[in-house]
UniProtKB/TrEMBL annotation:
Organism encoding this protein: Lysinibacillus odysseyi 34hs-1 = NBRC 100172
Residues of the DAGKc domain: 1-131
GO annotation, biological process: phospholipid biosynthetic process
InterPro entries reported for this sequence: ATP-NAD_kinase_N, Diacylglycerol/lipid_kinase, Diacylglycerol_kinase_cat_dom, Lipid_Phosphate_FormReg, NAD/diacylglycerol_kinase_sf, YegS/DAGK_C
Cofactor(s), by name: Mg(2+)
Top-level division of the source organism's lineage: Bacteria
Molecular function via GO: ATP binding; ATP-dependent diacylglycerol kinase activity; metal ion binding
Gene3D superfamilies associated with the record: 2.60.200.40, Probable inorganic polyphosphate/atp-NAD kinase, domain 1
Protein known as: Lipid kinase
Annotated family: Belongs to the diacylglycerol/lipid kinase family.
Residue spans crossing the bilayer: none
Signal peptide segment: none
Length: 304
């Protein structure tokens, strides 16, 4: 019998999941899984729980929570050799990765995708040979927005929390000096932000990296050169429509390896949470984890 380990963050998604846990366990049992669960207790616990699940030989691990919980589970699985398949029940505020692979926010629909059993291999990012990400690594004042929004704000306000924080932060958004090595190219100068995306879904925008493929072995790298606030507002408006790539201030490349260093300080953001400071090197681990997805809805992916 296959064994499934559910790792869930009891605080994410307005704390709804716990109520649905009995029916999720029952669905898995009916589908032939011996299922058990672990409620996370705080930062880092989901990573440890995932490592323990691998050590105990679980066939699949199901991450339930927001992008932060997913990141922690991915970090746990990614550092192991016999990696179990990964299921996802999105319960967060933005759920960027789930959005990119078309996993719905409805718990019963998300669990049905796991039970159906179709998986695809996806790329995972590795920073400084130590920290993992499955969606995005980013830096620059703008990207610090995501971790200045508290968990409590998100529970109470949902996505509105980000808009409020965004408006509050506009006056303090300024350029930072960065040296970006993007495979063999170097971009040295002041930038508003840079990002290294594994999917096309970033911060709820689905057109930021329009041609990102989740398993081609490449990051989609984007950076915005220093500009004035009105120019910046214009680029954001273009980004919402997916038309930002024609703006001359945008650098847009595909790369397997990216390095960032700075003369000042840059806080880096990994999958929406603070992930350390530059200098940093990001490497793409091609097709590192198998993820349950609604295969018929996934396009632009090289299936294997
Ligand atoms: N029991 C807990 N109490 C408080 N914080 C927790 C607990 N378990 C996990 N966490 C922390 O909460 C962080 C954020 O959780 P998660 O991403 O699942 O939810 P979210 O913040 O609601 O969603 P999103 O990141 O999509 O906005 C995790 O990275 C983890 O460190």
């Amino acid at each position: 019998m296959n064994r499934a380990r559910i790792i869930y963050n009891p605080t994410s998604g307005r704390e709804l999941f716990k109520k649905h846990l009995p029916e999720v366990l029952e669905k898995l049992e009916i589908a032939g899984y011996e299922a058990s669960c672990h409620a996370t207790t705080g930062a880092g616990d989901a990573t440890q729980a995932a490592i323990t699940a691998v050590e105990r030989g679980y066939d699949i691990v199901i991450a339930v929570g927001g992008d932060g919980t997913l990141n922690e589970v991915v970090a746990g699985i990614s550092q192991c050799e016999n990696r179990p398949k990964l299921g996802l029940i999105p319960m967060g505020t933005t759920n960027d990765f789930a959005r990119a692979v078309h996993i719905p926010r409805k718990i019963d629909e998300a669990i049905d995708i796991i039970i159906k059993g179709d998986t695809i291999p996806v790329d995972v990012g590795l920073m400084n040979n130590e920290k993992y990400f499955i969606n995005i690594a980013a830096g620059g004042r703008l990207t610090e927005l995501t971790y200045e929004v508290t968990s409590k704000m998100k529970t109470i306000l949902g996505p509105v929390a980000y808009y409020i924080k965004g408006i509050e932060m506009i006056p303090s958004i300024k350029a930072t000096h960065m040296r970006l090595e993007v495979d063999d190219e170097v971009f040295d100068g002041n930038k508003m932000m840079f990002l290294c995306a594994l999917t096309n879904s970033v911060g709820g925008f689905e057109r930021i990296a329009p041609d990102a493929s989740i398993n081609d072995g490449y990051f989609t790298v984007m950076a915005l050169e220093e500009c004035t606030l009105p120019e910046f507002a214009r680029v954001i408006t273009l980004a919402a429509r997916g038309e930002h790539l024609k703006d001359p201030r945008i650098i847009y490349r595909k790369a397997k390896r990216v390095k960032v260093s700075t003369s000042g300080e840059i806080h880096l953001n990994l999958d929406g949470e603070y992930g350390g400071d530059a200098p940093a090197e990001f490497v793409n681990l091609m097709r590192h984890i198998e993820v349950f997805v609604p295969i018929d809805e996934i396009r632009d992916i090289d299936r294997v």
